[in-house]
Design goal:
A 6-stranded antiparallel sheet has the order 1-2-6-5-4-3, with no helix packed on it. The protein has one domain. It is globular. By secondary structure, the chain is an all-beta fold.
Length: 87
């Protein structure tokens, strides 16, 4: 299974940027390359969790071209994906 998040405006590119992140139903591995006119795969790779609490998950996404650190932050209205400074 693939853990999946919809990030409607794309992954944040610069440290400090935040984007809405919506948890979506887990997908089978055969969805790994699925795209259509409104959905695309931002990156393929694996993630490494560094810390977790009820309101925050700190992680590194190891993608095709680079590694980026993010925090998933739970708010009263959902989740935010926050790009952290590279370490």
């Amino acid at each position: 299974m693939l853990r999946s998040w919809a990030v409607p405006k794309g992954l944040p590119d610069e440290p400090g940027e935040k984007r809405l992140a919506v948890a979506v139903a887990d997908h089978d591995l055969d969805h790994l390359t699925y795209e259509d006119e409104v959905k695309s795969i931002a990156d393929i790779g694996w993630w490494e969790e560094h810390d977790r609490s009820e309101r925050r998950i700190l992680l590194t996404l190891h993608g095709r071209d680079d590694d980026r650190r993010y925090a998933l932050i739970r708010t009263s209205q959902g989740w935010l994906l926050h790009r952290l400074a590279d370490q």
